[in-house]
Predict the 3D structure of the following.
Amino acid sequence: MPAIHDTRPIEDSVPKINDELAVGSDLQFQQRWEKLESIIWIFLFIFLLLSLAGLFGRGPLSNVTAQAPDASMQVDYERFERFSTPSVLTVRVNPASIKNGQLQLWVSDSLVKPLGNQRVIPQPERSELGAGGITYTFPAFESSASIEFQMQPSAIGKSELKMRIPGNSELDLNIYVMP
Amino acid sequence: MYTLIHAVLGYLFMTLMMRILKRRPGAQLTPFEFVLVFLVGGVIILATVGDDRSITNCYGGVIAICLMHRLINRAKLKWPRFADLVDGKPIVLLANGQWQAYSMKQAHIDDNDVMAAARGKNVRNLDGIKYAVLERNGGISIIKKSS
């Protein structure tokens, strides 16, 4: 293997101060950097404020209640969810929607993927796949009832979730999953 | 895959955050800065590894971070302007018996920090310093006055 003789002469490559000390400081660069730094801090501050407000989930801007056009159900959910982070969607059903001691709820399959449904409380008596979603059947008395879906989204981006009590109008929800 | 992306993003984000924190922790760790290092490290690790505690995930994250470090280092050598952005430039804090007030304020350094560095060089008081320079690694270099 040939010897490597890669050398270069010493030059005044590091700027000096007072013509005696090679420091390489640059006051102009420092001033420009200060300006850039201030702008970055402003962005970070705005990010924190938006985060507190709930624009990235878990805050007042995120918590929403939606109601089906015919008032057959109300849904409390988070409009902005976070990737792989547990959240709860609660469906409150109008007692008039309970028929023959049963409540049926159809939910589009986006509930499973990408919204990552982990658990339904109370446990449904039956779950049936079909019509682009799942129909859950719960035993119910004729009083108001709540159903809770515990979710953990598995994909980032916008997801459309549709819900319907058979024979009633559909409720469309847009859920944005943040990284 | 998410861990690798998170590790790369985490590396870039932490590089930016450490750069805009003025005093770089590492050269002069005070208890105050220890809190920063441990707390920030602890928080970022949660998002990096997620709930996957496998060796594959852990090693993947470490490799991604080391690779980023190597890439940034190569880029710094190739483009000096990029190196200035990542590491900053040395800042003169004291020159010929004059505090450089603007630079000290911007660097969040006070007389005590300079004197602490001076004591490490056996300089007994500020009169004995000709130059004090805040280096890119966060340390303060002291050039003594010639007697």
